[in-house]
Write a structure and sequence with these properties.
Elements: H1 3-19, H2 26-37, H3 45-61, H4 63-72, H5 77-108, H6 111-131, H7 157-169, H8 177-187, H9 192-218, H10 227-255, H11 258-278
């Protein structure tokens, strides 16, 4: 096995896990990095399969909470409503992805589009982070805005549907699935932490569904020669995603999204420069 090819696969896998659950677009990063380092798998088969590592990472971290929700379903209306909210939020992306994913990959999976959406999304995230933040108080005064929703179990079903519609925007590479859902949730009145947490829960059915569809579409491209690359990518994506999922909620609660916003803008700008200079 070519060591250079293994190194390229390792880089892509670490990036996949590290960026999947933060609002910077894992797909956009993989497209750009793959373009500049010359890594291409048939129909993105490698990139599809290593997503399973990121999916298992969030299931691992959230297993206890998921178990509590599952066991509470028969007797707890709050748990049933939350599960229904996640399913409702998942539905728009499932429909749009099922109908149009082939055309989206054909026409929109382009490094120029990725750079543009990275920069535009970074600007949007900066604005949202600054203007749609947590309730502010002044000395001797009460909150200057309505208290924001801090509990994902209290998100209403109409709110969940609107967040799901925002998630559809992330079909455009570079937008970011987590970024679109976080922005949508905050515009609907969620706090930064609860918006990010809801995005985590919504990622589980969304990523699992996308993985299953892509695997069904591309399983014929799999080869036993790719087994080592896939195993390395799976493990690297799992470890990097595990670190991010365990730390990002506390980071967002304390610092907001400005770091991710500027990261998007810088990466998108460097991508434009690279495309202009090197093609």
């Amino acid at each position: 096995m070519d060591l250079v090819l293994i190194a390229k696969a390792l880089v892509l896998a670490v990036v996949e896990g590290a960026t999947e659950f933060i609002p910077v677009s894992s797909t956009g990063h993989q497209l750009l990095i793959g373009h500049f380092i010359g890594f291409h798998s048939p129909n993105n088969t490698f990139e599809v399969l290593i997503q399973l590592g990121a999916i298992l990472a969030i299931l691992f971290v959230y297993f206890g909470r998921l178990w509590n929700i599952a066991t509470a379903l028969p007797n707890d209306p709050r748990a049933r409503r939350f599960v229904l909210a996640i399913l409702i939020a998942f539905l728009p992306a499932a429909i749009v992805g099922g109908l149009f994913s082939k055309y989206i990959k054909l026409y929109l999976f382009n490094p120029w589009i990725v750079c543009a959406t990275l920069v535009a999304g970074g600007i949007v995230l900066l604005v949202i982070d600054d203007t749609v933040g947590e309730p502010k108080t002044a000395p001797g005064d009460g909150p200057t805005e309505h208290p924001r929703k801090t509990d994902v179990f209290e998100f209403s079903l109409p709110m969940a549907l609107k967040i799901g519609l925002f998630q559809c925007i992330a079909m455009i590479p570079g937008v970011s699935r987590s970024g679109a859902t976080i922005v949508g949730a905050m515009l609907m009145g969620a706090s930064k932490r609860s918006a990010t947490e809801f995005s985590f829960y919504l990622a589980m059915p969304t990523m699992a569904g996308a993985f299953a569809k892509d695997l069904l579409d591309n399983y014929k491209n799999l080869s036993s020669n790719d087994a080592l690359l896939i195993v390395i990518g799976f493990v690297a994506a799992f470890i990097s995603a595990l670190i991010v999922v365990r730390t990002v909620l506390d980071y967002v609660s304390r610092h907001g999204f400005w770091l991710f916003a500027w990261w998007r803008i810088i990466v998108g700008s460097l991508g434009f420069a690279g495309l202009i200079l090197f093609g």
